[in-house]
Amino acid sequence: MNREAYIVGTGHCVPEKILTNADLEKMVDTTDQWIVERTGIRTRHITDDRTATSDLALEASRQAMESAGWKPSDVQAVIVGTVTPDHAFPSTACLVATRLGLGRVPAWDFEAGCTGFVYGLIQAKAFILSGLFDRIIVIGAECLTKITNWDDRTSCILFGDGAGAVAVSSQGPGGRLGSFHWGSDGNISDLLIQPAGGSREPATCETVKAHKHTIWMNGSETFKHAVRAMRDSCLLALENEGIPKSEVDLLISHQANWRIIDATARALGLSPEQVYVNIDRYGNTSAASIPIALDEAMRAGLLASPKNVVLAAFGAGMTWGGIVIRW
Ligand code: UT7
After folding, report:
1. Fewer CB within 10 Å, N or C, the chain?
2. Of ligand 1's atoms, which has the minimum distance to the CA of residue 226?
3. Claim to verify: residue 226 and residue 133 sit in the same structural domain
4. Domain that residue 246 falls in
């Protein structure tokens, strides 16, 4: 029999502290009305000085393992999609694996911007179908507010912190990872970039003064690419899976802007009830946004079998991906 990969457990964690649009009105020249109308965001959760990405990832993973009924010795690998690791190295995955008590399992980070979680699921599926692993934890975790330019009203209103994790197994029952479509285009990489702090422009006092260690984004251009790529990824993933868009029950999209989510939903012909939206509460948490939404949807009973779910993401790179999950 062919091997399959199933999501058998989910979890998420966001920091307690909430930053509201009213708080942001005191920090930059903006209004609650502009933020809500243009993005759909009302609040976002932000970490304190003592909390880092691995702390959020750890709690999300514990929940995913608990809901899967996994002991530490069951886990064979941990992968983390993040653009805000605790350190450039060692990887956040190594820190999380050790704190989960998993022993000496392989653990590594990878970077696909806000598409990180979808890229992670595709990696997990490939590893499981190859027979290399039977049980793997996939995490999307970010502390974007640590690299936010709080003087830039065009971007600082967008971001929040959080982590989501799933347990992926070769044994169901669960959400079977179906067909997918993914891609990248480095020609437009400068539309969304953290310019300094890497080997191209190492951090100096000057780069820090110029805010070059923070997120720089051409919002309106990124928006246009996101709408096209998320629509196309979803449609191609569905075509590969051989199901019409009329059979989609739920869209769980990256939460970057409610207008992008809405455009993707319209392209699939979905009604508002068929789209999971939590951007109003969390803002854009990059690689964490889809697994947070997935865990919330799971705990709200929205994934009770049978369900055809589509995930769609777009992010820095530029990268994009869509995957069908069948519960
Ligand atoms: O997660 C990875 C992928 N990321 C995304 O997909 C994000 C995609 N981009 C977006 O979500 C939107 O482009 C933004 C929310 C970032 C911006 O919305 P927009 O509708 O594209 O606005 P805009 O950049 O075209 O700016 C429109 C106006 C400008 O004023 P003028 O030049 O028309 O006078 C901006 O200066 O809105 C102004 N503006 C603001 N006004 C009040 C920009 N930011 C703000 C603000 N408050 N916070």
Report:
1. N
2. 6
3. no
4. 178-326
Q: The domain spanning residue 57 has which CATH number?
A: 3.40.47.10
Ligand 1 centroid to Cα of residue 198, in Å, is 27
Mind spelling out the 3-state secondary structure of 32-78? HHHHHHHHCCCEEECCCCCCCHHHHHHHHHHHHHHHHCCCHHHCCEE
| 190 has a pLDDT exceeding 80 | yes
Averaged pLDDT, 236-248: 97
The answer to whether residue 271 is domain-embedded is yes
**Cα gap 268→271, rounded to integer Å:** 9
pLDDT in tens, 250-305: 999 999 999 999 999 999 999 999 999 999 999 999 999 999 999 999 999 999 98
- Within a domain: 17: yes
pLDDT of 129 > 80? The answer is yes
Q: How high does pLDDT run on average in the chain?
A: 97
| 314 in a structural domain | yes
Residues in the ligand 1 pocket, defined by CB under 6 Å: 30, 34, 38-39, 114, 153-154, 157, 219-220, 222-223, 226, 256-257, 260, 284, 314-315
Same domain, 32 and 59: yes
Query: How many folded domains does the chain comprise?
Result: 2
Reduced to 3 states, what is the DSSP secondary structure of residue 145? helix
Q: Do 141 and 207 share a structural domain?
A: no
pLDDT of residue 327: 97
Residue 1 lies in a domain: no
Residue 284 among the catalytic residues? yes
Q: How far is the CA of 216 from the centre of ligand 1 (A)?
A: 13
Give the position, in ligand 1's atom list, of the atom nearest the Cα of 286: 1
Active site residue 254: yes
- Nearest atom (ligand 1) to Cα of 154: 44
- Phi and psi dihedrals of 46, rounded to 5? -130, 145
Burial of 12 (0-12, 13-18, 19+ CB in 10 A): buried
Residues constituting the chain? 327
Same domain, residue pair 255 and 294: yes
Rounded mean pLDDT, 169-184: 98
